[in-house]
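TA notes. Do not distribute before section.
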Amino acid sequence: MMKNKTIQFSLIFGLLVLLISACAPAAGNSADAQSGGGSGEDLQAADGVVWQLVEYGPEGAMQPVLADTQVTLKFDFSQHTLGGSAGCNSYSGEFDLSGSSLTTGPIMSTMMACLQDGVMEQEQAVSGLLDTLSGYQLSGDQLVLIAEGGQLIFTRQ
């Protein structure tokens, strides 16, 4: 009788150990490993940080931000929103972050006429990239947003 209880206990204990180990994350599958490459920093740690755009566009044809304009970006993780200045107009929208995947809903913008040459074109290009985000890479003071038509490279302000 005692031998049967010992066998039952051993079986139950073994199954419990298997169940617990099956629920543990696999090696290399931590949140850091999923956060978009680079140094694997978590974008949520940058909540409330103001980022300044340095350059944007398709790889191999990146454009610097126009002189005398500041294009900024700020995430609000509690509201799942982002926003900033596009150089002349302000913009905002919602975002979804899952691992290294970063997507946005439609980006809304104010519609002031911008008189400086090239500013409207810059705003349209930046907005178009923000509308098609698919991921990010965060490394130190640099944030790269990856979009269908290129990327946006920001530095921490």
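Switch to the second chain here.
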Amino acid sequence: MSNDKLQFVTLMFVDIPTAVSVREAEGDDVANAMVEECVSLISVVRKKHSGKLIRTVGSSMICSFEGGDDALFAARTMQTCITEHQFHCETAPALRIGLHAGDVVFRNGMCTGETVTTAARLVTLAAAGQVVATEEVYSHVSNEAMEMMRPMAAAEAMQGRLRTKIFEVLWRPAPVLKMVSEAPVSVAAPRILTFERRIRLDQAVFLRMCSAISIGAGLLRRAARVFRDSPLPAFRACS
């Protein structure tokens, strides 16, 4: 009697690519301890989002989720947990995660089918610290989850081989941009006021100088006329 069961699920492939570099730099014991910590953190998140563990192979895991939202939010939380956790190794661990949805044949706790093959190939496209998903996942998630996905750049070749569009799942908080106008008033305002006072003072001095020059010019013109019209020979000679 066959125990095959066909089910539509979202598959998650999780890999820890930094395990190799930790093993080479710090030894097997440190690398194994790091992988165990990662698997433990991932398992807690997976269970919280109703995910099932299918298989663990070295530093890689295969999980299944009944809903696309569960898989997507679990992947985002896994990345955050690994990033924020304090590990006892010099090289910071990082995950790469691939999500793909489709019909899967479950047999004796294992899974087979084209969906499994696509998900396994998809995770190799992700960089360390990245989550990627297919159009099949995008088509089966909520609007809230869709807003966390964007088409992946420079993935045309892989999209052709996998025959599906590929999306990147955003999980890092958006950077907070500070505007120049947010400078402390106690620092910026006095400088601005002082500058404005100096401008007003310079204007007043300039106007006074112009007035004085105008008055002086008028006096000079009067003196010139007086000298020119004077009957005295000395004055006429000076003019």
